[in-house]
Amino acid sequence: MAHMDTEKTQAAQWFRDLRDQIVAAFEGLEESHAAGPLTDQPAGRFDVTQTKRAAADGGDAGGGMMSVMRGGRVFEKVGVNISTVYGELGERAQMAMAARKGIPGMKEDPRFWASGISLVAHMQNPHCPAVHMNTRMFWTPHAWWFGGGSDLNPCLEYDEDTAHFHATQKAHLDPHGEAQYPRLKAWADEYFYIPHRKRARGVGGIFMDDQCSGDWASDFALTQDIGKAFLPAYVPLIEKRRVQDWTEADKDAQLVHRGLYAEYNLVYDRGTKFGLETGHDADAVLMSLPPLAKWH
After folding, report:
1. What is the pLDDT of residues 23-54, one digit of tens each?
2. Which is catalytic among the residues 33, 122, 132, 164?
3. What is the value of pTM for the model shown?
4. Residue 161 resides in a domain
5. Is 280 a catalytic residue?
6. Domain of 222?
7. What is the pLDDT of residues 206-235, one digit of tens each?
8. How many structural domains compose the chain?
Protein backbone atom coordinates (compact mmCIF):
# COMPACT_ATOMS: atom_id res chain seq x y z
CA MET A 1 0.00 0.00 0.00
CA ALA A 2 1.26 3.47 -0.85
CA HIS A 3 2.73 5.64 1.87
CA MET A 4 -0.16 8.11 1.33
CA ASP A 5 2.01 11.04 2.42
CA THR A 6 -0.22 13.62 0.73
CA GLU A 7 -3.35 12.21 2.34
CA LYS A 8 -1.70 12.02 5.75
CA THR A 9 -0.61 15.66 5.54
CA GLN A 10 -4.08 16.75 4.45
CA ALA A 11 -5.80 14.90 7.28
CA ALA A 12 -3.37 16.10 9.98
CA GLN A 13 -3.76 19.71 8.82
CA TRP A 14 -7.53 19.45 8.90
CA PHE A 15 -7.52 18.10 12.46
CA ARG A 16 -5.35 21.09 13.41
CA ASP A 17 -7.77 23.52 11.71
CA LEU A 18 -10.74 21.98 13.52
CA ARG A 19 -8.86 22.27 16.80
CA ASP A 20 -8.27 25.98 16.18
CA GLN A 21 -11.97 26.58 15.42
CA ILE A 22 -13.12 24.78 18.56
CA VAL A 23 -10.60 26.49 20.87
CA ALA A 24 -11.69 29.90 19.51
CA ALA A 25 -15.38 29.03 19.93
CA PHE A 26 -14.93 27.79 23.50
CA GLU A 27 -12.94 30.84 24.56
CA GLY A 28 -15.71 32.88 22.94
CA LEU A 29 -18.27 31.15 25.17
CA GLU A 30 -16.18 32.11 28.20
CA GLU A 31 -15.92 35.75 27.10
CA SER A 32 -19.61 36.12 26.22
CA HIS A 33 -20.92 34.65 29.49
CA ALA A 34 -22.65 37.80 30.78
CA ALA A 35 -25.70 36.53 32.73
CA GLY A 36 -26.21 33.75 35.23
CA PRO A 37 -23.88 31.88 37.61
CA LEU A 38 -20.12 32.54 37.75
CA THR A 39 -20.20 35.67 35.58
CA ASP A 40 -18.12 37.39 38.27
CA GLN A 41 -15.23 34.99 37.58
CA PRO A 42 -12.53 35.67 34.98
CA ALA A 43 -13.03 34.15 31.56
CA GLY A 44 -11.20 30.87 31.12
CA ARG A 45 -8.29 30.46 28.72
CA PHE A 46 -6.60 27.41 27.26
CA ASP A 47 -3.16 26.42 28.45
CA VAL A 48 -1.30 24.93 25.50
CA THR A 49 1.56 22.45 25.81
CA GLN A 50 3.39 20.43 23.20
CA THR A 51 3.49 16.67 23.73
CA LYS A 52 6.26 14.37 22.56
CA ARG A 53 6.31 10.64 22.04
CA ALA A 54 9.58 8.70 22.03
CA ALA A 55 10.23 5.45 20.20
CA ALA A 56 11.63 2.44 22.05
CA ASP A 57 15.12 3.44 20.93
CA GLY A 58 14.58 7.00 22.12
CA GLY A 59 14.03 8.41 18.64
CA ASP A 60 11.27 10.75 17.51
CA ALA A 61 7.86 9.10 17.26
CA GLY A 62 5.68 12.16 16.83
CA GLY A 63 3.58 14.09 19.32
CA GLY A 64 0.99 16.78 19.38
CA MET A 65 -0.60 19.68 21.17
CA MET A 66 -2.59 19.50 24.40
CA SER A 67 -4.90 22.45 25.06
CA VAL A 68 -6.62 22.41 28.44
CA MET A 69 -8.84 24.99 30.11
CA ARG A 70 -9.46 24.61 33.83
CA GLY A 71 -11.70 26.57 36.14
CA GLY A 72 -13.45 28.75 33.57
CA ARG A 73 -16.83 30.29 34.21
CA VAL A 74 -18.53 27.97 31.69
CA PHE A 75 -16.04 25.11 31.39
CA GLU A 76 -14.80 23.44 34.56
CA LYS A 77 -12.32 21.40 32.51
CA VAL A 78 -12.07 21.00 28.76
CA GLY A 79 -9.27 19.45 26.78
CA VAL A 80 -8.74 19.63 23.04
CA ASN A 81 -5.86 17.40 21.94
CA ILE A 82 -4.35 16.89 18.52
CA SER A 83 -1.59 14.43 17.79
CA THR A 84 0.29 12.82 14.94
CA VAL A 85 2.24 9.76 16.02
CA TYR A 86 4.11 7.07 14.17
CA GLY A 87 6.50 4.18 14.63
CA GLU A 88 6.01 0.48 15.14
CA LEU A 89 3.15 -1.17 16.97
CA GLY A 90 4.23 -3.23 19.98
CA GLU A 91 3.25 -6.86 20.23
CA ARG A 92 0.21 -6.26 22.44
CA ALA A 93 -1.07 -3.47 20.20
CA GLN A 94 -0.50 -5.70 17.16
CA MET A 95 -2.47 -8.53 18.74
CA ALA A 96 -5.35 -6.25 19.70
CA MET A 97 -5.54 -4.75 16.23
CA ALA A 98 -5.15 -8.07 14.45
CA ALA A 99 -7.93 -9.57 16.56
CA ARG A 100 -10.24 -6.69 15.66
CA LYS A 101 -9.29 -6.16 12.05
CA GLY A 102 -7.51 -9.31 10.87
CA ILE A 103 -4.82 -7.38 8.98
CA PRO A 104 -2.37 -9.75 7.28
CA GLY A 105 1.32 -8.87 7.31
CA MET A 106 1.21 -6.70 10.43
CA LYS A 107 3.70 -8.86 12.33
CA GLU A 108 6.20 -8.70 9.47
CA ASP A 109 5.81 -4.93 9.04
CA PRO A 110 4.27 -3.31 12.15
CA ARG A 111 4.73 0.32 11.11
CA PHE A 112 1.85 2.70 11.77
CA TRP A 113 0.89 6.37 11.53
CA ALA A 114 -2.07 7.95 13.30
CA SER A 115 -3.38 11.49 13.50
CA GLY A 116 -6.49 12.95 15.07
CA ILE A 117 -8.28 15.32 17.37
CA SER A 118 -9.88 14.39 20.68
CA LEU A 119 -12.05 16.60 22.86
CA VAL A 120 -13.83 16.20 26.19
CA ALA A 121 -15.63 19.01 28.01
CA HIS A 122 -16.81 18.94 31.63
CA MET A 123 -18.97 21.92 32.53
CA GLN A 124 -19.40 24.13 35.60
CA ASN A 125 -23.19 24.32 35.32
CA PRO A 126 -24.95 20.95 35.78
CA HIS A 127 -27.58 22.09 33.26
CA CYS A 128 -24.83 22.26 30.59
CA PRO A 129 -24.13 18.82 29.14
CA ALA A 130 -20.66 17.32 29.04
CA VAL A 131 -19.55 16.26 25.57
CA HIS A 132 -16.97 14.16 23.76
CA MET A 133 -15.77 14.39 20.15
CA ASN A 134 -12.95 12.86 18.18
CA THR A 135 -11.96 12.17 14.59
CA ARG A 136 -8.85 10.32 13.44
CA MET A 137 -7.03 8.66 10.55
CA PHE A 138 -4.94 5.52 10.93
CA TRP A 139 -2.46 4.09 8.42
CA THR A 140 -0.41 0.92 8.23
CA PRO A 141 1.40 -0.48 5.17
CA HIS A 142 -1.46 -2.98 4.94
CA ALA A 143 -4.58 -0.86 5.50
CA TRP A 144 -5.90 2.62 6.31
CA TRP A 145 -9.10 3.78 7.95
CA PHE A 146 -10.90 6.65 9.65
CA GLY A 147 -12.85 6.78 12.89
CA GLY A 148 -14.59 9.20 15.18
CA GLY A 149 -17.81 10.66 16.41
CA SER A 150 -19.34 12.77 19.15
CA ASP A 151 -21.76 12.04 21.96
CA LEU A 152 -23.64 14.14 24.50
CA ASN A 153 -23.40 13.40 28.22
CA PRO A 154 -25.90 15.47 30.24
CA CYS A 155 -26.46 14.74 33.91
CA LEU A 156 -29.75 16.67 33.77
CA GLU A 157 -31.41 15.68 30.52
CA TYR A 158 -33.44 17.99 28.30
CA ASP A 159 -35.25 16.26 25.45
CA GLU A 160 -35.02 19.33 23.22
CA ASP A 161 -31.23 19.48 23.70
CA THR A 162 -30.87 15.82 22.75
CA ALA A 163 -33.09 16.39 19.70
CA HIS A 164 -31.02 19.37 18.54
CA PHE A 165 -27.73 17.51 18.98
CA HIS A 166 -28.93 14.54 16.93
CA ALA A 167 -30.72 16.60 14.27
CA THR A 168 -27.59 18.66 13.60
CA GLN A 169 -25.52 15.53 13.18
CA LYS A 170 -28.11 13.98 10.87
CA ALA A 171 -28.12 17.11 8.70
CA HIS A 172 -24.34 16.88 8.28
CA LEU A 173 -24.38 13.15 7.50
CA ASP A 174 -27.38 13.02 5.14
CA PRO A 175 -25.36 14.32 2.13
CA HIS A 176 -23.30 11.12 2.43
CA GLY A 177 -26.40 8.95 2.09
CA GLU A 178 -29.51 8.64 4.23
CA ALA A 179 -28.25 5.38 5.70
CA GLN A 180 -25.21 7.01 7.32
CA TYR A 181 -26.87 8.74 10.28
CA PRO A 182 -28.89 5.69 11.41
CA ARG A 183 -25.78 3.52 11.02
CA LEU A 184 -23.52 5.83 13.02
CA LYS A 185 -26.19 6.52 15.65
CA ALA A 186 -26.70 2.81 16.25
CA TRP A 187 -22.93 2.34 16.44
CA ALA A 188 -22.66 5.09 19.08
CA ASP A 189 -25.49 3.55 21.11
CA GLU A 190 -23.61 0.26 21.15
CA TYR A 191 -20.11 1.68 21.64
CA PHE A 192 -20.91 4.13 24.46
CA TYR A 193 -22.75 1.54 26.52
CA ILE A 194 -21.42 0.63 29.97
CA PRO A 195 -22.03 -3.11 30.45
CA HIS A 196 -21.33 -3.22 34.18
CA ARG A 197 -23.85 -0.41 34.75
CA LYS A 198 -26.31 -1.76 32.18
CA ARG A 199 -26.83 1.71 30.77
CA ALA A 200 -25.53 4.20 28.23
CA ARG A 201 -23.08 6.82 29.48
CA GLY A 202 -25.15 9.63 27.90
CA VAL A 203 -27.84 10.31 25.29
CA GLY A 204 -25.81 9.14 22.34
CA GLY A 205 -24.60 10.72 19.16
CA ILE A 206 -22.68 9.28 16.23
CA PHE A 207 -19.65 7.01 16.05
CA MET A 208 -17.69 5.00 13.50
CA ASP A 209 -14.45 3.07 13.42
CA ASP A 210 -12.53 1.13 10.78
CA GLN A 211 -14.14 3.27 8.07
CA CYS A 212 -12.52 2.28 4.77
CA SER A 213 -14.75 2.15 1.71
CA GLY A 214 -11.70 2.08 -0.56
CA ASP A 215 -12.36 5.70 -1.55
CA TRP A 216 -10.10 7.82 0.67
CA ALA A 217 -11.54 11.18 -0.40
CA SER A 218 -15.09 10.04 0.30
CA ASP A 219 -14.22 8.65 3.72
CA PHE A 220 -12.24 11.78 4.58
CA ALA A 221 -15.21 13.97 3.61
CA LEU A 222 -17.47 11.90 5.88
CA THR A 223 -14.97 12.28 8.73
CA GLN A 224 -14.77 16.03 8.15
CA ASP A 225 -18.55 16.36 8.37
CA ILE A 226 -18.56 14.51 11.68
CA GLY A 227 -16.14 17.19 12.88
CA LYS A 228 -18.03 20.07 11.24
CA ALA A 229 -21.27 19.01 12.95
CA PHE A 230 -19.81 19.39 16.40
CA LEU A 231 -19.87 23.14 17.09
CA PRO A 232 -23.38 23.80 15.68
CA ALA A 233 -24.68 20.75 17.54
CA TYR A 234 -23.16 21.72 20.88
CA VAL A 235 -22.57 25.47 21.26
CA PRO A 236 -26.27 26.51 21.15
CA LEU A 237 -26.99 24.14 24.04
CA ILE A 238 -24.34 25.80 26.20
CA GLU A 239 -25.51 29.30 25.28
CA LYS A 240 -29.01 28.30 26.41
CA ARG A 241 -28.15 26.43 29.63
CA ARG A 242 -25.21 28.41 31.10
CA VAL A 243 -27.55 31.11 32.44
CA GLN A 244 -29.58 28.71 34.62
CA ASP A 245 -29.13 28.55 38.39
CA TRP A 246 -28.41 25.18 39.98
CA THR A 247 -28.90 23.54 43.37
CA GLU A 248 -26.61 21.37 45.49
CA ALA A 249 -28.69 18.38 44.38
CA ASP A 250 -28.02 19.31 40.74
CA LYS A 251 -24.27 19.48 41.42
CA ASP A 252 -24.38 16.15 43.23
CA ALA A 253 -26.14 14.56 40.25
CA GLN A 254 -23.43 15.98 37.98
CA LEU A 255 -20.57 14.55 40.04
CA VAL A 256 -22.17 11.11 40.23
CA HIS A 257 -22.81 11.13 36.49
CA ARG A 258 -19.16 11.99 35.88
CA GLY A 259 -18.29 8.74 37.60
CA LEU A 260 -19.87 6.96 34.64
CA TYR A 261 -17.59 8.86 32.30
CA ALA A 262 -14.48 7.95 34.29
CA GLU A 263 -15.48 4.29 34.49
CA TYR A 264 -16.11 4.08 30.77
CA ASN A 265 -12.88 5.75 29.74
CA LEU A 266 -10.70 3.70 32.07
CA VAL A 267 -12.33 0.32 31.42
CA TYR A 268 -13.63 0.31 27.85
CA ASP A 269 -12.47 3.22 25.71
CA ARG A 270 -10.39 2.00 22.77
CA GLY A 271 -8.58 5.32 22.31
CA THR A 272 -7.42 5.37 25.93
CA LYS A 273 -6.08 1.84 25.64
CA PHE A 274 -4.31 2.57 22.35
CA GLY A 275 -2.73 5.78 23.64
CA LEU A 276 -1.31 4.13 26.75
CA GLU A 277 -0.29 1.01 24.84
CA THR A 278 1.73 2.99 22.30
CA GLY A 279 3.55 5.16 24.85
CA HIS A 280 1.83 8.48 24.20
CA ASP A 281 1.92 11.17 26.91
CA ALA A 282 -0.20 9.75 29.76
CA ASP A 283 -1.51 13.18 30.79
CA ALA A 284 -2.71 13.77 27.23
CA VAL A 285 -4.31 10.33 27.00
CA LEU A 286 -6.10 10.77 30.36
CA MET A 287 -7.05 14.40 29.69
CA SER A 288 -10.66 13.25 29.29
CA LEU A 289 -11.09 12.43 32.97
CA PRO A 290 -13.18 14.92 34.96
CA PRO A 291 -11.52 17.14 37.58
CA LEU A 292 -14.05 16.00 40.21
CA ALA A 293 -16.37 12.98 40.30
CA LYS A 294 -18.30 11.15 42.96
CA TRP A 295 -19.40 7.62 43.72
CA HIS A 296 -22.16 6.77 46.18
Report:
1. 999 999 999 999 999 999 999 999 999 988 87
2. 132
3. 0.93
4. yes
5. no
6. 5-288
7. 999 989 999 999 999 999 999 999 999 999
8. 1
